[in-house]
Structure formats: C-alpha cells, structure tokens
Amino acid sequence: MVSIDSLTMSFGAYVAVQDVDLSVSDGEFLAIVGPTVCGKSTILNAIAGLLKAASGIVSIDGQPVRGIQNDIDYLFQDALLPWKTAIRTWSSVLCSRVSALPNVASGR
C-alpha cells in the first residue's frame, strides 16, 4: 500500500504541491492526470524517494519513504505509448472494457 499524508513539496519559495492526501491499496491502479506543471511528476518522485518532502509523509506498506526505492517504477505516457494522446490511450482501454461508452474513443 502507498500512502501519502499531507504531502507538501517545494523548490525554494515555489510550492509545487500542497497538502496532498492519497492512498493506493495493493492491486489498485492509479493514474495521475493533470495539466503541465501541476505536480504529477513531483508526487511520483516523492513516492519513489527521489525527492524529499517539505512536509508530510509518504509511506509504502506502512514504512516511511527515506531515500530511493529500488523496487518502485513508473512510466510516462510518451515513453510507454509515444504515438498516442492521453484521450486515445484511455479511451481505447475504457472502450475495450465497457462497450456502453462508444463516444469516448471519438472524444465526445
């Protein structure tokens, strides 16, 4: 289980993310989606132990993250599926599982 409690990440005076709470149980899938420079990568880097939190706690299986986690991996969409946009990537997943969503693939 990954747990984030009141995570704040800052770079100098710039606050990248503030007071983030998140819990992901074993077997769950998480996608962090948002506009450029909203803190997605910063949160992932905190979970992986690549960045230290200004405040708050990141823990994995109840143990606080204190440095690089060698068993944590994540991929950005462009590295995984460089030919797809976000809407095409997720619409194909959704449409393959839920046939009641025919308009998702067309972006409507």
UniProtKB/TrEMBL annotation:
Name of the protein described by the UniProt record: ABC-type nitrate/sulfonate/bicarbonate transport system ATPase subunit
Domain ABC transporter: 18-86
Transmembrane segments: none
Keyword vocabulary terms for this entry: Transport
Family per record: Belongs to the ABC transporter superfamily.
An MF annotation (GO) of this entry: ATP binding
Keyword Lipid metabolism attached: no
Listed Pfam families: ABC_tran
Biological source species: Rhizobium lentis
